[in-house]
Amino acid sequence: MKVSYLAERTEWSNLIADWYFNEWGDLSPELTKDTILANVLAKSKSTTEFPLSIIVHENNSLAGVAELKLRENVNYPEYEYWVGGIFVSNEFRGRGLSSILINKAKDHTFKLGINKLYLQCEKHNVNLYSKHGFQAIHHAKHRSIETTIMVCANSA
């Protein structure tokens, strides 16, 4: 497995948009494949600065993706830097790729001198993120979904 940035492999932008649309497209009527693709493309321009996407791949097969975002939840503008959109393709699940993506997102963020990284997740993912140093700080709603807002602080 190799970890890269979407900016280095933009040919996978459409596939990522398809994944996101199929996984989360029904959450809100304004989410279309085109709006999701535009959002993915916005994260394909940089390998260093937010927003960006981190990808994991094997040979010529994309396995998974994670996004580093700015102010993902409009209800919490004080929370600036977020990780989200973590997705692993069905055929690659069970290999620890989510952990690889989460760790790369944290490493990248903290190397930039950013000391806090936020995320929001559904209840069934809280334990996954807790294993990676994220702590629940409160509950919120994102679109129509009940979520837990979590933070990971750089301990260095």
Ordered list of secondary-structure elements with their pairings:
Elements: E1 2-5, H1 13-24, H2 33-42, E2 52-58, E3 61-70, E4 81-88, H3 97-111, E5 116-121, H4 126-130, E6 135-142, E7 145-153
Antiparallel strand pairs: 1-2, 2-3, 3-4, 5-7, 6-7
Helix pairs in contact: 1-2
List keywords for this structure.
single chain, 156 residues, alpha+beta, Aminopeptidase, four-stranded antiparallel sheet, three-stranded antiparallel sheet
Short structural description:
The protein has helices spanning 13-24, 33-42, 97-111, 126-130, and strands at residues 2-5, 52-58, 61-70, 81-88, 116-121, 135-142, 145-153. It has 156 residues and is an alpha+beta fold. The radius of gyration is 15 Å and the shape is globular.
Give an overview of the whole structure:
With about 160 residues, the chain is an alpha+beta fold. It has one domain (about 1-155): Gcn5-related N-acetyltransferase (GNAT) (Aminopeptidase, 3-Layer(aba) Sandwich), CATH 3.40.630.30. Helices cover about 25% and strands about 35% of the residues. The chain contains four helices and seven strands. The strands form two sheets. The chain has a four-stranded antiparallel sheet with strand order 1-2-3-4, with helices on both faces. It has a three-stranded antiparallel sheet with strand order 5-7-6. The protein is globular and about 40 Å long. The two termini are about 30 Å apart. The model has no long low-confidence stretch (mean pLDDT about 95).
